[in-house]
Specification:
- By secondary structure, the protein is an all-beta fold.
- The chain has no helices and eleven strands.
- The strands form two sheets. Strands 2, 4, 5, 6, 9, 10 and 11 form a seven-stranded mixed beta sheet that branches. Strands 1-3-8-7 form a four-stranded antiparallel beta sheet, with no helix packed on it.
- The chain is globular and about 45 Å long.
């Protein structure tokens, strides 16, 4: 079955960096658009970054992270990454990866369980 397993979260000081990973299995990873979302306590889940099956990426969904995040994928390893730099306390959230497949006009999403990122001194 489809599995998405995030890792790489943890406690980091302001100004630090983290690289989150999302290992995928159970589907053809290379054909899926992948995305990272985040959800802070008491807030809605926000889209952070997207990368399509052909490697086109977009990271301008959130003004607060523009210029600080990069999304990439390694289809040989069935893994998508989120590199986050110059982390700030407001980046504290659970980070989720999502795999999307669209068939015609219908799209199907699969989610990972999330990885906690805490930015604090």
């Amino acid at each position: 079955q489809v599995q998405l397993v995030e890792s790489g979260g943890g406690l980091v000081q302001p100004g630090g960096s983290l690289r989150l990973s999302c290992a995928a299995s159970g589907f053809t990873f290379s054909s899926r658009t992948m995305a990272w979302y985040r959800q802070a306590p008491g807030k809605e889940r926000d889209l952070v970054a997207v990368i399509t099956s052909n490697g086109t990426s977009r990271t301008d969904y959130l003004d607060s992270v523009k210029g600080r995040v990069t999304i990439s994928r390694d289809n040989a390893k069935n893994t998508v990454y989120l590199q986050m730099n110059n982390l700030k306390p407001e980046d504290t959230a659970v980070y989720y990866c999502k795999a999307r497949e669209c068939v015609g006009y219908k799209c199907y999403d699969d989610w990972g369980q999330g990885t906690q990122v805490t930015v604090s001194s």
